[in-house]
Design brief:
The chain has three helices and two strands; from the N terminus they run E-E-H-H-H. The chain is elongated, with a radius of gyration of 16 Å. The protein has helices at 11-19, 25-32, 42-71, and strands spanning 2-4, 9-10. The structure holds FE2/S2 (inorganic) cluster. FE2/S2 (inorganic) cluster (FES) binds next to loops.
Amino acid sequence: MIVCVCAGVSERKLRAVIADGAATMREIERRCGAGAGCGSCHLAVRQCLRESREAAAAVDMEFPAAAAAQLAPA
Ligand code: FES
């Protein structure tokens, strides 16, 4: 699905850019152009950024428990 029509950026591309380290709207604009045109995609881009942050935070919270389980004596 195309998120930014002006730059032709798909949701997949946007998520890849975020996963590669783009953490702000400015960085996303610089890396792929999404949001740099008319601005009508800003809400969708921010939503994608927020979802990616929440997913990353959930993984961070799960990792210590998983690591502790592996390190625990059998
Ligand atoms: S649709 Fe993204 S800047 Fe226009």
